[in-house]
Design a protein that fits this description.
By secondary structure, this protein is α+β, with helices and mostly antiparallel strands. The chain has 20 helices and 15 strands. Strand 2 and strand 3 form a beta hairpin.
């Protein structure tokens, strides 16, 4: 770190292309050799308000703070200004944000929660550190190059039993050391899982979010809950070790969300196996020769082919088209009873949709923070962007949406924590359908408002608005996966109508 001190008058003398210094937040940078390579052009740096001047406000109107931390730019610092101190500080790794509404109230100083304990808070601290040191760097890199998440990340998640914890509380956690002992298996409840979902969503890398755990989240529960013991134990440990991946394949061009309309066919070959002829491990739902539905656990083998499907988010997600042509599957790989495939498929929907709602709110809150920061530092027509009533109105709507969604999710989580799996299926199917629908609808409204607040920067993949562009482009995924909004809304209403008392009238 450069320790030499200069006066502003000294810096002002260095105001030419070949001898160019600037001040950013009390730090002096020598840009003489860099100026001609500046991505934004030379003229920006030789401007009278920049060359030899304090360019703090101008810099932060054009660049994110992270630029100053990059080695190629931090080495340009040659000293500091006499009598001045740094005013802008990046949030420390793992620390909480001080921006209003950037954190849920249970993590905000001065607020209280009936749901979260000190143990939850300790877990959140350690998990955020893990996300920001291990997951975040890999996530941003893989979003760009489209490659699958790095094996080193899976290895670290396995070491801390994060892959196992992502499936929620249950017997599968027994005997495992969770996050180096921060939480005991018997203490782990749905609020810990909520924390995990919301913290990972903060990486704002939607494709990576699915590629690093989405398949396991929806693909492993059918094996865990319906697999025969020998197969179940083998596959669960392979996935928890981070060495193998698993996915759920129940959608096809003919059926889409209409799971009962699957046309894939599996023919029973005596008591030994099944011959599947349709499109790591794959849970696949298909019709059998008795006209019912069966779910099969299919391992990678001859006759199983996959190819990537291009979508609006990165190929790091692993979205793929799978075909099966004459694949032999041992009968022991059948999940659940014969003709009971539909129940296997539907059994995890509540947990799946709740998890998606958790992540949706976490990502939405990150965008609220981005917009509050930008609206505060951005100046237009000689005034802060926040001086515009229309901007304050959009911020108010964004805050109201994320806070209401958070509180609804927390309430549903509390019910889950105090209900058996059977009670959840009876009482919460409609509630969870509604809360996911609400979260994804409000998320899309927030994405639209965020683009308006950032303007042109909100539709560029680099620079100040890159997280806004990414969010706006990928947020529709949450509205489709796990059930489209209209389908979930209808499900919630039908659940309510079933419980309407027969003796009530206006």
């Amino acid at each position: 770190m450069a320790s030499k001190q200069y006066t502003k008058e000294e810096v002002a003398k260095h105001n030419k292309q070949s001898d160019l210094w600037i001040i950013i937040d009390s730090k002096v940078y020598d840009l003489s050799k860099f100026a001609a390579m500046h991505p934004g052009g030379l003229s920006v740096l030789t401007d009278d308000q920049v060359a030899g001047q304090d360019a703090t406000d101008i810099f932060f109107s054009l660049h994110r703070y992270e630029v100053l931390l990059k080695p190629q730019y931090s080495r340009l610092q040659i000293g500091t200004i006499v009598g001045e101190e740094q005013q802008v500080f990046p949030r420390a790794i793992g620390a909480l944000s001080k921006v209003p509404y950037a954190e849920p109230t249970w993590l905000t100083e001065g607020y209280y929660s009936p749901y979260f304990t000190d143990r939850h808070r300790r877990f959140q601290v350690e998990f955020r550190k893990f996300v920001e040191t291990v997951i975040l760097p890999d996530a941003q890199a893989r979003e760009e190059d489209g490659k699958r998440p790095s094996q080193s990340v899976f290895d670290e998640m396995a070491r801390l039993n994060i892959i196992a914890m992502r499936l929620g509380p249950g017997k599968h956690l027994k005997g495992r050391v969770l996050m180096n002992g921060v939480v005991k298996p018997e203490e782990f409840d749905y609020f810990y899982e909520l924390i995990m979902g919301q913290e990972v969503a903060r990486i704002n890398a939607r494709g990576y979010y699915d590629g690093s755990g989405g398949g396991t989240y929806i693909g492993l529960p059918p094996v865990l809950n319906f697999g025969k013991p020998a197969i179940r134990d083998k596959v669960v440990e392979e996935v928890f070790s981070g060495k193998k991946l698993i996915c759920l394949a129940i959608s096809e061009a003919f059926a889409g969300s209409d799971v009962a309309g699957l046309k894939c066919f599996a023919k029973r070959q005596g008591m030994h196996g099944t011959d599947s002829a349709c499109a790591a491990h794959i849970d696949y739902g298909c019709r059998n020769n008795e006209g019912g539905m069966v779910v099969l656990l299919i391992e990678r083998q001859e006759g199983v082919e996959t190819k990537p499907i291009k979508t609006s988010y990165s190929t790091t997600a692993g979205t793929g088209f799978v075909t099966f042509d004459g694949v032999f599957v041992p009968y022991e790989n059948t999940l659940g009873p014969d003709n009971g495939g539909l129940q296997v498929i539907l059994s995890n929907f509540n947990h799946e949709r709740w998890g998606m709602a958790c992540g949706s709110v976490g990502a939405q809150r990150f965008i609220v923070e981005e917009c509050l920061k930008w609206a505060t530092q951005r100046h237009v027509f000689g005034k802060p962007l926040t001086s515009q009533a229309v901007i304050r109105s959009k911020l108010a709507a964004m805050i109201a949406r994320v806070e209401s969604a958070q509180n609804w999710v927390e309430n549903v989580t509390y019910q889950m924590t105090n209900m058996s799996y059977k009670e959840q299926a009876s009482h919460l199917a409609g509630q969870i359908a509604f809360v996911k629908k609400y979260c994804t609808e409000t998320a899309q409204e927030t994405a639209k408002d965020a683009v308006q607040i950032f303007g042109g920067r909100g539709i560029t993949k680099t620079g100040m608005g890159r997280f806004i562009e990414h969010y706006h482009r990928t947020v529709p995924f949450d509205a489709i996966l796990g059930g489209a909004e209209d389908v979930l809304g209808d499900l919630g209403v039908r659940q309510a109508l079933r419980k309407m008392p027969k003796n009530t009238r206006l």
